[in-house]
Amino acid sequence: MNPKQQRETFRINKYTGTTSGMCDNYLQANMIMLPKEYAFEFLLFCQRNPRSCPIVDVLEAGVTHPRIAEADIRTDLPKYRIYRNGKLDKEVSDIKGEWREDFVTFLIGCSFTFEKALREEGIGLLHQEQQRVVPMYKTNIPCEKAGRFEGNMVVSMRALKPEEIDKAVAITEKFETSHGGPVHIGNPAEIGISDINHPDYGESVSFDENERTPVFWACGVTPQNVGLNVKPAIMIAHAPGHMLITDQLEEK
Amino acid sequence: MNPKQQRETFRINKYTGTTSGMCDNYLQANMIMLPKEYAFEFLLFCQRNPRSCPIVDVLEAGVTHPRIAEADIRTDLPKYRIYRNGKLDKEVSDIKGEWREDFVTFLIGCSFTFEKALREEGIGLLHQEQQRVVPMYKTNIPCEKAGRFEGNMVVSMRALKPEEIDKAVAITEKFETSHGGPVHIGNPAEIGISDINHPDYGESVSFDENERTPVFWACGVTPQNVGLNVKPAIMIAHAPGHMLITDQLEEK
């Protein structure tokens, strides 16, 4: 399926799972939607934290169609999260009932974009093999503050064989708008992750710690984590792992 | 003089002229100050137009000290322009009397930053030799719109000898946060400039058109030009050519 066909399956709720592995070569994006009063400070937060929050598109207040996808932002992601006053209220398959004309939408690069390039070099991705949502963790790596937005980075994890790591670093470094190279390799405790088997977002992936090393990339779920500190009356985001698939070919 | 000493001469109004040629190796910046209600759309405008508006720092509402210069933004530029309702009201040497807590300040890279690198390669700069403010022109090159902000690019011009041009392109392309390489070389009419001897900002520089070719770089005065279309009740900017000298060494 091409991105347009794939998004159609989300729109009619035929499919509501993770987008990892879908529409190879197309850029996937994290989504975060905030009332306009937060838009300046949030955009500045992204500008100051390009590793975790690389902006790939911004939809001005009231705009429902991105520039990089022939999509309706209210229906064309497989799953959404609605946060109220800093707490997760619910997960839904569309947000038509919540839409407001003062919502500004931010699209942020996603590491799913580089997964095909990894597979092409023979690097197996366990979360795809095990059909799980990629595991994501809160870390102790601080983001640079902007206005009310402050907090720590969220990372995604892929456990790789030692001989794959250099290659994975070299490949992903080229994907500048999709988080680039890893932010940490090895011991999870060094970045504040206490239990690799209990991710904060996504699902746990099984791997043999004697054979594979966890490798961590900055993650576009960071804004959800940071946004919760600000406690906006409403904040809508993609469900982690359930991205907007754009019509834009990946950029390396 | 180092940047701090040089800014002191501006603060006490000992000097109010152009900063071209001052504090070699230090990044110089365009300044634009807007009430917070415009901040999101203006930051988005910069994000969409990185060639003319490369952001080097943003001061959140009410903040008077940049992160990249130990300076007071209200006094430490040699000259300011105050625009009201889309018209130039006056030029002043400080803006202490106009300062408001809801002002957000944007600092944008400036082509003065790469002038030393040009001179070091033996490329003479006529505006410095003739002691003029570098000439700047409105063009017909459209910027990408963001919210209410739309309009055409402003460019600065340096007339070079034919044998200097390739070298100047190669040098300036490395200065990504200071506008990078030229946007146009040669015939001014092709980018909508009708009379090279009557710049829209700065001062005219004399050169022999048989011996030198005009070379144009994107200019951080673009936001002033574009901001005037929006007609904010108040907008404050540096006087063209009269920049903030930062404490940050140039980045190539």
Automatic annotation (TrEMBL), chains A, B:
The keyword Lyase applies. Pfam families: D-Glu_cyclase. The keyword Lyase applies. Its EC number is 4.2.1.-. Coiled coil: none annotated. It is an enzyme of class 4 (lyase). Keywords: Lyase. Belongs to the D-glutamate cyclase family. This is Putative hydro-lyase P9989_16480. It comes from Halobacillus naozhouensis.
